[in-house]
Amino acid sequence: MSIDKNKSISIWMEEELPSFASLNHSLATDVCIVGAGIAGLTCAYLLCKEGLAVTVLESGLIGSGETSHTTGHLAWLLDDRFYELERLLGLEGAYLAAQSHLEAIKTVKKIIEEENIECDFKELDAYLFRAPEDPPCILTKEFATLQKLNMPVERLEQAPFPHFDTGPCLRCPHQAQFHVMKYLLGLIKAIERMGGKIFSHTTVTQVIDGSICRIITEENHEISARQVIVATNTPINDRFFIHTKQASYRTYVIAARIPKGSIPRALYYDTLDPYHYIRLYSHPSDEESDWIIIGGEDHKTGQEEHPSEKYLILENWAKERFPNMSKVEFYWSGQIIETIDGLAFIGRNPHDDNVYIATGDSGNGLTHSTIAGLLLTDLIMKRKNPWAHLYDPSRKTLSAFTEFTKENLNVAAQYGEWLMPGEIDRLNQLHSGEGAIIRKGLKKYAIYRDSEGGLHCYSAVCPHLGCFVKWNQSEKSWDCPCHGSRFATDGHVLNGPAISPLKPAQDALKNID
């Protein structure tokens, strides 16, 4: 089966999750959770276990967001090196980070066992090997910090690949992998059994803090809740503050078959920035093969001219190292949110009393999401949690000031597009299946030509904070280079923080050309 790269279909998406009705009335609940990916559903599961009335709202299909576009790694070996976390957060902060992610893996295992979820969960080792471009000291420093943290680590001569000599590497046990969509299905069944309510195709437009919070939907229904959790990958309720401390990136993944057992089952990472990440997966329909799943080639959302080429670069990298790999059959990409210090923002939304957020997965979204479930449940139940200050959304990491400045200068530079010309001058330059920006006077328009030749015209201004969107030919989307909002060719929101679609401007076509 050959998958069209433009469709960005992950290997997990053949697992269908149940469909739910949209919310068509107002209601009251103890906790309202906005977002039904792994973060939202983990929070819902744990809060239902506490006996609270929980309502989950999802703008699209359940699990159709970034959770379905992951690679299913459950790792405490974080992609931001621990020696770097020690520099930013001190030894205690690095220790708490390691312990919290380790506890997240244990929690996933416990939930799987208690709920009898069949999701291909497997505990295994992780191998970290040096990219040729990096200095040898990078592994030495990481090894030393992991020893100081008393985390299990071993130095080896090379990772256990048959055809690829990685050179020296670190082996770190007690990681895991699973099939994330099967896991979500298990969470959904448990939430429903405990009385939790789930609604899909329900877009939230406002979250208003208070002793009783108010959540307003696009259809103007209102949910009253004592607490609200916004678990939408990037917060839709915070227009500015959090977005100055994190940035959106696209990451790319390919999957191909290899002879079964030819590569030991483990998680593999190199030290490149952006790094490559590798795992294996067995599908019951093919007893002769494993799937090798390889990701990498990250870039800031909306800031790559030729995103489709990332798949080719990734494929060439893989073929050089895994010559027994067959043709690539799955291509997909996902959105990751990188924070300035490498750890998620989980806790009370700044300046709110009863609104909580979970964002900033930093490449470890599945464990960060599980940490969110544990931490936010403790905060809502008014229990102390040793990780609360580590993940506090209001934290100020002064030692990460350089990264903070760099990211915000990058965002500021994108507003220079207000002064730039359009990408094309005339509509006849636009081929079927393509999009481009056209300037007409002081205004810019995002115009897409569909397969039948029809034109779809929208304002090119992102409704979040006014950046101009860029066309992503690989995924047929309009991507904002400032804060990562993404829009489909019909203008509707694919990724926040924007909550409003691109503004239709079909009438402008009369004055173009």
UniProtKB/TrEMBL annotation:
Iron-sulfur found in the keyword field: yes
Top-level lineage group: Bacteria
InterPro entries, sorted: FAD-dep_OxRdtase (IPR006076), FAD/NAD-bd_sf (IPR036188), Rieske_2Fe-2S (IPR017941), Rieske_2Fe-2S_sf (IPR036922), Rieske_Fe-S_prot_C (IPR005805), YhfW_C (IPR038010)
Domain Rieske per the UniProt entry, residue ranges: 422-513
Magnesium is among the record's keywords: no
A Pfam family annotated for this UniProt entry: DAO
Keywords noted in UniProt: 2Fe-2S, Disulfide bond, Iron, Iron-sulfur, Metal-binding
Gene Ontology terms: cellular component: cytoplasm; membrane
Gene Ontology molecular-function annotations: 2 iron, 2 sulfur cluster binding; metal ion binding
Protein's recorded name: FAD dependent oxidoreductase
